[in-house]
Write a structure and sequence with these properties.
With 349 residues, the protein is of the alpha/beta class. Helices cover 26% and strands 18% of the residues. Helix 1 packs across helix 3 (98-110), helix 3 (98-110) packs parallel to helix 5 and helix 8 (283-295) packs across helix 9.
Length: 349
């Protein structure tokens, strides 16, 4: 599969080794005086090591690579002790990789009797750790309490400050931090930082659902239904945990401006990817990402939203071609809007 993975420029690398302790997955080693990527399956492609290279010898590239395997990684981390395991789990939380986090916690709980450190103490520490906004806490709570069989009361709710992983100049490093610090110089590009959001609430509870296409009350709810960032097809990472098992809304760029009820009527409960089939370059990359979303993220459905203008038909063609090329089939729905935002076609294809 094609995915993001670390690339090392051997001409620039001086073998200083500063990247090694900052690769929590153990994918890097110094061999023959140079940093080497020793295993594709252990590199998560998030780039925690990049900001610690003084020579600028490391970058993220997209290439064919073995899928990342969290179970194999956490098993190796456990041999290195409590501090390494804790750093690894915090690293996953920093990046919003809650699917991998749940896998790691599950492995630790299953092997609690065979490791020489207190598993539940680590889980508590990681639960308290705050990489960003409080909305992420519900994800961790699901991982360490609701889904992994940890007894009620094992983890309590506190507020501990936490930073991102790596620090320094995180060039290309997709931290999940938000707020003013996330936009500080050297903090990585906020536009490509992978983030998951909690569902919006009204009066302390989840909002009641509207049927797809149904108009909200006057003026709408005022709450964004966006569940993740980024959304542009060139920037999304199909391996990001928020896409796993989701319903995908693939929308042409102009749709959200034309559809008055875009958030409540169509985006609610879905992950989002946007593209312009006429103006965007390198649409081959879009095809590969859509295939990965179907095969690897195992999305449930694709809803394509496009405008009635002829050039917009390309986005529907991309979705259909990706499903045909993928190893599994998912239903595809096509919704076409007029330039005034009226629905002129709504059908499964």
């Amino acid at each position: 599969m094609k995915r993001e993975i670390i690339k090392i420029d051997e001409d620039k690398c001086n073998g200083c080794g500063l990247c090694i302790p900052n690769c929590h997955e153990g994918a890097l080693q110094i061999i023959d005086g140079k940093a080497r990527l020793i295993s594709d399956l252990m590199c998560d492609g998030l780039g925690a090591c990049i900001g610690h290279c003084p020579e600028g010898a490391m970058e993220i590239e997209v290439r064919e690579a073995e899928p990342y395997d969290e179970i194999k990684v956490i098993a190796l981390m456990a041999e290195k002790g409590k501090n390494v395991v804790t750093a690894h789990l915090k690293h996953l939380k920093d990046h919003g990789e809650f699917v991998f986090l749940k896998q790691a916690v599950g492995w630790l709980m299953e092997n609690e009797g065979s490791v020489d450190f207190p598993v539940r103490e680590i889980i508590q520490e990681v639960h308290f750790y705050r990489p960003g906004p409080a909305e992420e806490e519900h994800e961790m709570e699901s991982a360490v309490k609701g889904d992994e069989g940890i007894p009620a009361g094992t983890v309590s709710r506190h507020s501990h400050a936490g930073g991102g992983c790596g620090g320094g100049n995180n060039h290309g490093h997709q931290q999940i931090n938000s707020g003013p610090a996330a936009f500080a110089p050297g903090g990585g590009c906020p536009g490509s930082r992978s983030m998951s959001f909690a569902p919006p609430t009204v009066n302390g509870g989840n909002r009641s659902p509207l049927g797809e296409g149904e108009q909200s009350t006057a003026g709408g709810s005022g709450a964004s239904q966006l569940m993740q960032w980024p959304v542009q097809m060139h920037l999304i990472n199909p391996r990001a945990s928020h896409f796993s098992g989701s319903d995908l809304l693939l929308a042409a760029d102009c749709v959200a401006y034309a559809a008055a009820n875009f958030h409540d009527g169509y985006l609610k409960g879905k992950t989002l990817a946007i593209a312009c089939p006429k103006l965007d370059s390198n649409r081959e990359a879009y095809h590969e990402k859509l295939v990965s979303l179907v095969n690897d993220a195992k999305i449930n459905t694709i809803t394509v939203m496009k405008m009635e203008v002829p050039c917009c038909g390309g986005i529907e063609q991309m979705a259909v071609a990706a499903v045909e090329a993928a190893g599994r089939k998912v239903p595809v729905k096509s919704v076409t809007l007029s330039v005034r935002g009226e629905v002129v076609d709504d059908r499964w294809i």
